[in-house]
Each structure stands twice: as C-alpha cells, then as structure tokens.
Amino acid sequence: MNPTDIPGRLDRIAREDGALGAFWQVDAAGALAARPAQGALRGLAVGIKDNVDVAGLQATAGLAAFRGRVAAADAPCVAALRRAGAVILGKLAMHEGALGATTDTPGFGRCINPLRAGHTPGGSSGGSAAAVAADFVDLAVGTDTMGSVRIPAAYCGVVGLKPTAGLLGRSGVVPLSPSLDHLGTLARTAAMAARGVEAMVADDPADSGFRPAPAGWCAVPNAPAEPAGLRVGLPQPVLDAAMEPAIRAAWMAAAAQLRRIGASVVPVAMPAWNPTAARRAGLLLIEAEAAALHPALIDDPRAASPEFRAALAFGRDAGTVRLVRALFHLAEVRAAVLRALDACDVLLMPTAPQRAFPHGMLAPVDQADFTALANIAGLPAISTPWPAEDGGLPCSVQLVGRAFAESLLVGLVQVLCTDHAPG
Amino acid sequence: MNPTDIPGRLDRIAREDGALGAFWQVDAAGALAARPAQGALRGLAVGIKDNVDVAGLQATAGLAAFRGRVAAADAPCVAALRRAGAVILGKLAMHEGALGATTDTPGFGRCINPLRAGHTPGGSSGGSAAAVAADFVDLAVGTDTMGSVRIPAAYCGVVGLKPTAGLLGRSGVVPLSPSLDHLGTLARTAAMAARGVEAMVADDPADSGFRPAPAGWCAVPNAPAEPAGLRVGLPQPVLDAAMEPAIRAAWMAAAAQLRRIGASVVPVAMPAWNPTAARRAGLLLIEAEAAALHPALIDDPRAASPEFRAALAFGRDAGTVRLVRALFHLAEVRAAVLRALDACDVLLMPTAPQRAFPHGMLAPVDQADFTALANIAGLPAISTPWPAEDGGLPCSVQLVGRAFAESLLVGLVQVLCTDHAPG
Predict the structure, then answer these.
(1) Does residue A179 register a pLDDT over 60?
(2) For tag attachment on chain A, is the N or C end more exposed, with fewer CB atoms within 10 Å?
(3) Annotated catalytic, A177?
(4) β-strand pairing of B182-187 with B104-105
(5) In A, which residues are within 8 Å of B324 by CB distance?
(6) Does residue A236 belong to any structural domain of this protein?
(7) Secondary structure (H, E, C), B149-198
(8) Using an 8 Å Cβ cutoff, are B38 and B84 in contact?
(9) What is the mean pLDDT of residues B201-212?
(10) For residue B242, is pLDDT > 80?
C-alpha cells in the first residue's frame, strides 16, 4: 500500500473538520515532520482517541478535569503504531469519559456524523469513526468498554474491530473499567482495521490484563476465509429483541449471504443472556470501577458533567452485595457465550439496535445491548457496515468469535461483503 | 488396585473416630449396600466434605443454619465419583462455612489431627485430611478457596490436589466465594489424588465457572516426569516471608532434590505479589461474595458463629470502592503469577508457613498466605508432605503450575519424593 498524502489529509481536515469536529487536536507540524518507519503501516494517516496518550499532545478523555493534560510519552500501543510506520495526525473527539455513545461532550463540543448533518456519530469513539468516514485518516484507534468502537463504526458506516481481551496492553489509556476496557481500531476495510490491531500488539507489563497472543496468532488472514461448513449462530435473545426493521433486515440479509456461500446458520438459545440485564450489570461494574479509579471527579462540579459524576457516585454507593450480584450475572453471561461458541464457530448479530440518530435526541438505552456481550466475555468482535434496504443511513452487523479468532472474523467480513466505503 | 475392605474401614472408623471426629455422618448401610461401578476408583473408600451434596446424607457446611439439611441428589462431582466406582462412606468434618483453617466448628465439634492428639488437622477440609491420614478412606473430597485442601493436607501429612479453576464443576457444593472456590482431593499418594480429580471431571452446565479441559488433558501422568531441564521458580516474596525454620528447611531440601534430579531451580522476583496483601484482598472478596450468597445468615444469631457472621457483615458493608480495589489487586497478583510461569515451568514453595498447632491456640493469620496464590490465579497446585528435619510433625511443600498442567505437578511429586504414608 502506498503511503498516504499527509499534507493532502491535513488540508482536508483543515477544510472540512470545522463542520464535523472529529479532531480535538491536529498535530500538523508533527505529522509533516514524521519520518515513518518501514512497517506494515508505513506512511499511513492515523488518528488517536483522546483517552490514549500521544507524547506531547493533550489527553483529556473528554473530561473537564483532564483539560490541559499533555501526555509525556506515547502509550505502548501508540509507540507500536509508530514502529509500524504510522503517522499520527492528532487526537480525536470522544464521549465524556468514554461513558456514553453520542459524542456530545460538555465543554468539548458535538462531533457530527459525516454521513448526515446534525446526527451523532455514536460513541464513545465518535471522533474515531467520523475521522475514518470523512477520509481524514486511514486508521483510527478507539476504546471499547461495552461497544465504544463498534457502535460509532456502525453509525458512521465503517469497520470496527475489538480484539480479544488482553491482546492489546492498555497502559497510557485513561481507564474507565479495567475489567471491560479494550483498545480497538476503526477503518474503511476489515483488512486495515486488522493491520492496525496487529501493529498495536506489544508487551505491556504494567497492564495486569495483558496476555500474550498464542504462537502464530494474526489478525490479517493468511488466506481467504472458507465459509463452507462454518457454523454461524444467531443468538435467540437478539432474535427476540427490539430493533429497527432495517437493522433486522440487514442482519437477515447477512445471514442469508453466509448461507449462500456455504455456512450453516442456526439460532442458538443462550437463555442465560438477557441483553438488557447484562448491559445493566456491566454498567454497574463500570460505574464501580470508575469510582474506585477516579474518586476525585465525583464531588467536584468542575471535574465532569452532573451525569458523569452521578454515574460514578452510583457505583461508589451501590454496595458490595449489589456489585457482587452484578459480577455473578456477568459470569453467567460469559459462560453462556462460551457454551454457544462450543456449538458455533461465530455468532452473527446486529451491532446496535438502531442507526445514527439526531444529536439532541435522548440516546436510546439499548445502544450497547448487543455489543456489550463481547466485552463481558472478553471475546473478539468485528462490526461491518451493511446497506440499508430503505436506502437510508447504513446498518451494521457484528461477528463475535472465540478467543484470538480475529483472523477468522476479518476473513469472514471480507467474503461476506465487499468492504463498504462510507456514504 | 484391589477394592478396599469396606467393612474393615467401617470397623476402624467405629473404633477410632470417636477420638478424632473426622466423620460427621457415616453411611455404613449405604457403603455396605453399594455395588461399585467398574471404573478407575472401583471399590475404593471415599469420604466427602460436608459442604458437598451426597444424596440422602446431611450437607451442613458446618453452619448451624444448615443443620438438618439433607441433600436430595448427588452433586455432579459425587455422581461422577460413583460412576468411577467409588464407595461413599460418609460426610467429613470441616471448618464452619469453609471460612477458616482449624476445623474447630461451633456446635459440630473439634476434629483432631491423627498425627498428634489435641492438634488441629487444619482446615477448612480438616475432616478430609484427618480421614485420609487415619486410613479411614482412600480418597477424600475437599474444597479449597484460599488453601482449604492443601493446608489440612499439609498439617496431616497427606497429599492435597487443587486443580485448575473450572475443571471441576461445583454444582451441589455450598458456595463460599465462586470466584475462588475450587473442589479438590486428598489422598496418601499423588497418584490417588490425581485419580480422584480425573474421576470427578463431568460437565456442569449450572456452574458458570465450569470450563471443559483441553483435549488430551489428564491428571494421572502417562509416563514418569522428566525433571531434566525443567525450570522451577522459588518466589522471592516467599523467600522473604516468615515461616517456621523446619518449613524453610523442608522447602530448601525439596529444591535441592529437584536440582539433584536435573531441574534448574531459581528465585523469581514477583514484586507485585505481597502474600499478606493478596490474602487480605482475597478474604474481602470471599466475605463480599459470601454476603451476597448468604444474606440470611448475617443477622441471625442462631445461623452461625459471631465470627462468621461478622466476616460476612464486613463484606456486605465494605463498599464497592474497597471491593473494586481488592479486585484490582488480585488482578495484579494473577498477572504476576502468569508472568512468573512464562519464565518457569512450575513454582515451588511451602504449603503453609507453619505445621499443625494445638487446638485452642489462636490461629496464625498467615495460614493461607502461600496457598491463596493458586486460587487467585486459578492455577493447579499440589501439596505433598516432606519430613521435618527435627523429626516432629511433617512439613509440606507445594507446586503451582500452568493451567491444566496437573499431570506435570503429580509426576513431579512422584519423582520428588516417595509418597509419604502419614506418620
């Protein structure tokens, strides 16, 4: 792949991002001065979510309390991207504290979906998805605690890849919930998202969740995926869930396409997984872990929005019995997914129950109902756009696989659909 | 192996157990009427800790609240033992609620160490260790949340095996802390303990922690272990810890023996593991999980001892922030063990810092400091007796291995020392 025209991208950002707000900080000088390493991402334009440290740039996590904070050093995943040749263009918009999925962030501004004016790009990695969809960057780094890479990828019509828990070390990333936080990538193609994840793999002794990948692991498939004989599960709790009709139609079309190319596609029961209850249990864990990590934010009205502080206060005050019950529930859900993936090779479902909606509308509570599953189970998941039958904003479907099965998921997206360029 | 003389064992129990109190319920009629299956344990005498369900027998967990409770069905692990030919002789003494390590249980009585009158057998599986040491049974089932199989095995001079987390389904076992609870076995030889664990493996869909063993897994080695070239780590935090001189001498003798037979034995740093802090964090998790599982016990003075109820009340009232910090600490410890086991094949350390002590003495706080590590990390561990240089009560050393490396641990114990019959 040829290196990207970095000055051209910077020009485009300067011209177009005023209307979008995907970037919170553009490092034009740094990008133009970069001497990209000879690696898999040589000369490609990369944007980084604003909760990941890039040396010399701000790292606010969208929290007023962290405004003005400048990272002294690259996070290990960013250093790994540079070793692979990435050119870092700057820091991308995100939902406040990575807790929420509209990227309408008090004091930092609204990020706009490049596919439709006035609409949310989703979140929390909303700027990451918008920057990819607007062709500002070839690759964006996001974080995903209950769906924060895949939901904005879905809303903006790009690919989102959240790899297996532990694969990508999270030092230098502002933590929200270490039990559920993952790094991930967004790009216009599954192959590019996979190259980004591969490039970010680096030892991270300071992250207790880091686990070395098994020998021979890769994210970019070595050969085209072979769907014949593959067992694809459609989770019954998702079949039973409410969603936009266009979303359901896109999901069924993707299932039909997999059948057509030889996979066996069957419902899987998963009675222990109630998407609403699981998302709520996950949210309590997030609130409790965030409260333990960021106690100073809770009682300082200048530190964050009332909503963010209330969420952490709820976690702080919920009590151990309530938290333990949530953890027990999450363990049941995890066991249910692992059992489902004994019977199936992958699970196929929509990424989110809805498409992008206008800013200012109350965010649907179920945005993360389908994505949270892969965080709870620590399993890899990829979301890919799928055209809407009504011709409107794109839909998106999601594949969840076994631990370290990234290359199968990426290969399936490649055969499932020609990778869609946004809009 | 020949079937055991079941009537002879029952006679011995009738004659000798009055002084020991290893059994809380002997099922002589059931044992004599048993028609053992043709399996790996055919006709062997087995005792079951009183927190594991055996159809028709009591299952009290040593809690006053559960006195009179009779199990309607066998726990899956007990059913699996019967399928392997085990003859169940009855239910064994344990520390109240499996939370503690002396087996001096209010309202149920003291279990006495068969090796020395008036001394504790350890706990919480004290009756399991005593029944094996007294030759009442060939195999005993115990449970181990921070060391409750291995500590009594150590105090009573027998072998204790706590397998990998998830290998043995725990349905039908009174839970204390699902995050840390494990089933395990006690026997006079490592081979017998391993046969017991192998026999207990059975699917358990109701236990969200159950994980199928990898293909080809076994606990009984297929061939003698080959220590040449094996890397054995001595954790520096244990080298730095306080312990009885005889315990340290036994540990060093076992290390020297491993060196003699070809292993390389080296200290491993593990700075993130502070055994005291890790045990305390584990204890808080236990208290919080037990409080969530058994809320009715906390405020009912007739349900359990003041000490037990106070522990659960502490867990209930500790608050989410304190619990989350404990969980973060445990994650750091887990990461430290996994890193140590990247550099080493096994870790070698004492089982407990002390030998059996007289009943009535205040229990040392550090009993589980060395054993809790394997529960926190979910890794297999085996404890084996080692003669004391002072000729007194036996010492014990413990090997901790990688997930599902049971057969390596068992094989090493076999070559490390002739299996010791209790003194």
Answers:
(1) yes
(2) N
(3) no
(4) unpaired
(5) 288-289, 291-292, 323
(6) no
(7) CHHHHHHHCCEEEECCCCCCCCCCECCCCCCCCEEEEEECCHHHHHHHHH
(8) no
(9) 97
(10) yes
β-pair type (A87-92, A23-26): antiparallel
H/E run at residue B115: none
User: Residue A247 falls within a domain, yes or no?
Assistant: no
- A 10 A CB-CB count for A266 gives 13
Question: With an 8 Å Cβ cutoff, is B290 touching chain A?
Answer: no
Contact list in B for residue A315 (CB cut-off 8 A) is: 320
Contact A338 B288 (CB under 8 A): no
Decide: B389 and B250 in contact? Cβ < 8 Å. Answer: yes
Query: The CATH number of the domain where A51 resides is what?
Result: 3.90.1300.10
The three-class DSSP label of residue A141 is strand
Q: How far apart are CA B423 and CA B116, in angstroms?
A: 10
Residue B421 has pLDDT above 70, yes or no: no
Domain count, chain A: 1
Residue ranges in A299-351 assigned as alpha helix (H)? 306-317, 320-343
Check A91, A124, A177, A305 and give the catalytic one.
Answer: A124
Give residue-wise pLDDT tens across range A350-383. Answer: 999 999 999 999 999 999 999 999 999 999 999 9
Boundaries of domain holding A406 = 1-227+347-423
Tally: H helices and E strands in chain B: 14, 13
Query: What confidence score (pLDDT) does residue B422 get?
Result: 34
Q: pLDDT band for B418, please (50, 70, 90 cuts).
A: low
Do B320 and A320 lie within an 8 Å CB cutoff?
A: yes
Residues B184-199 pLDDT 10s: 999 999 999 999 999 9
A162 is catalytic: no
User: What average pLDDT is seen over chain A?
Assistant: 96
> What confidence score (pLDDT) does residue B2 get?
83
What are the beta bridge partners of residue B397?
B350, B384
DSSP string, B18-56: HHH--EEEE-HHHHHH----SSTTTT-EEEEETTB--TT
Q: Decide if A295 touches B, using CB distance below 8 A.
A: yes
Query: Which residue stretches of A37-149 are H helix?
Result: 76-83, 126-133
> Would you say residue A353 lies in a domain?
yes
A91 is catalytic: no
Q: What per-residue confidence (pLDDT) applies to A417?
A: 76
- The answer to whether the Cβ–Cβ distance between A319 and B315 falls below 8 Å is no
Q: What is the DSSP letter of A109?
A: E
Range of weakest confidence among A228-237, A310-319, B379-388, B409-418 = B409-418
Catalytic residue, chosen from A125, A148, A179, A383, is A148
Q: Please check whether residue A265 lies inside any domain of the structure.
A: no
CB B386 within 8 A of CB B253: yes
Does residue B360 belong to the interface with chain A, where contact is any CB pair within 8 Å? no
What are the pLDDT digits (tens) for B58-91? 999 999 999 999 999 999 999 999 999 999 999 9
